[in-house]
Amino acid sequence: MVPISHGKPIRISPRVQRITAGNSGPMTGPGTNTYLVGEREIAVVDPGPAEPAHIQGILDAAGDRLRWILVTHTHPDHSPAAQALREATGARLMGNTLQPDDGFQDMGFVTEHAFTHDERLATDEFTLRAIHTPGHVDNHFCYLVEEDGLLLTGDHIMQGSTVVIIPPHGRMGAYIRSLRLLLDYPLKALGPGHGTVIEDPVAEINYLVQHRLQREAKVVKVLSAVQRGNLEALTRQVYDDVDPGLHPIARYSLLAHLIKLAEEGRAAAEDEDHWVWRS
């Protein structure tokens, strides 16, 4: 396992280096990972927050070789540095934007190229395959460095933690389907948006799917027992194994589970806060 080092390029595969921003915290873990793919011509994946020190670290590592800037999604810890890098290098901005703003988007990111699912960015040194993975947020893409079998996962998969799903642009059903979709690709390792490299991608993906389904089963158990509840009370019961200080965040994922159950006809919303069991 290659440890995290803030501000310094660390090689994690034959074609990829990682630079971690200094924005560590409860939602970002040790910080946002920026990946530099290639040597003669470089693609940056997830430029990260608009922190001067982080931007300078990327420029020091890539210099005038930076050609492409890709984002996995437009959350404010992943894409804001893109504009400064473009202004410094003229590199092409690539990624998918999201409308309307849900209050969590970097609305300053303006793409020059929006990816379609399974589209490739091919160079003489590497091939990046864009894989549409909605769930954490609808405009989320992972990027597979095909020659290395390394999947750069953004916030679809984090090392050491599960990701929060925030409706309406975050959807639990889509998230689980997107996880299963990744099993169709020849993955050797995962480069997460936060944390260290995950060396057993199949085991990690299967664990995450099972974890979400187990949490869903707990939602079903609690809601079917009480028949009706508000989000605050349901969060306390469904996430009774989680630090209560994290319950305000867990509440988003609970809502995503409830919306999935409603789509399946097993639950229904009486209003924005109250849910009832229907099955």
Descriptive keywords:
279 residues, alpha+beta, 29% helix
Quick take:
Helices cover 29% and strands 21% of the residues. With 279 residues, it is α+β, with helices and mostly antiparallel strands.
CA(first)-CA(last) distance: 46 Å
Would you count the extended β strands for me?
Answer: 14
| Largest sheet data | 6 strands, mixed
- The radius of gyration is 19 Å
Task: Give me the side-by-side strand order of the main sheet.
Answer: 1-2-3-4-5-6
Describe this structure in words.
- The protein is of the alpha+beta class and 279 residues long.
- It is 29% helix and 21% strand.
- It is built from six helices and 14 strands.
- It has helices at 52-62, 81-89, 172-182, 201-226, 231-238, 247-263, and strands at residues 10-13, 16-20, 33-37, 42-45, 66-70, 92-94, 120-122, 127-132, 141-145, 150-154, 189-192, 228-230, 267-269, 274-277.
- The strands form three sheets. A six-stranded mixed sheet has the order 1-2-3-4-5-6, with helices on one face.
- A hairpin with a 4-residue loop joins strand 7 (120-122) and strand 8 (127-132).
- Helix 1 (52-62) crosses helix 2.
- The protein is elongated, with a radius of gyration of 19 Å.
- 45% of the residues are buried.
Record the SSE blueprint.
Elements: E1 10-13, E2 16-20, E3 33-37, E4 42-45, H1 52-62, E5 66-70, H2 81-89, E6 92-94, E7 120-122, E8 127-132, E9 141-145, E10 150-154, H3 172-182, E11 189-192, H4 201-226, E12 228-230, H5 231-238, H6 247-263, E13 267-269, E14 274-277
Parallel strand pairs: 4-5, 5-6, 10-11
Antiparallel strand pairs: 1-2, 2-3, 3-4, 7-8, 8-9, 9-10, 12-14, 13-14
